[in-house]
């Protein structure tokens, strides 16, 4: 899977794909980070670094980290910004101390993770009062079949329901503060209404 994303890195930056599919969720993250005045932030599965770079440029100064498991994606991310700390690591084993961060964000990637393990790790690295914000595809749309069609059995494309997301967040120790759709400028079955879930570490 990491080899696939390494090969796909250049196509991932295609402007229409970013504008219409990924940017709405990224805009939600920027708004949340601005609202919470988060200073120590990590973008999990950061890809080519578009969101992490936006965070650094639009909300800095502060500590901004981007974490991914694709060397190809990270190579493009490093070329994009020298001010973000780019790290090769899995979502389930982050290279940060306990309580080191104010916010953990991830867009359009949660279906690739060992979800309970990743949420437990996000909780570990957050300081009290910090939050994690995750956007996911919604299972009532066509996202899961499309992911399976593209990737086959190579990807654990687990697309949890709203209730399942809440349960996983609470099991990891978060208080769920937000669960709502992410609006998109147009609708297609595989991009309509990503769901945003925000959990606070008490």
Automatic annotation (TrEMBL):
EC class (word): transferase
GO BP terms: methylation
Domain Methyltransferase as annotated: residue spans: 41-130
Domain of life of the source: Bacteria
CDD domains reported in the protein's UniProt record: AdoMet_MTases
Pfam families: Methyltransf_25
PANTHER family on file: METHYLTRANSFERASE, RHODANESE DOMAIN-CONTAINING PROTEIN
Record's protein name: Demethylmenaquinone methyltransferase
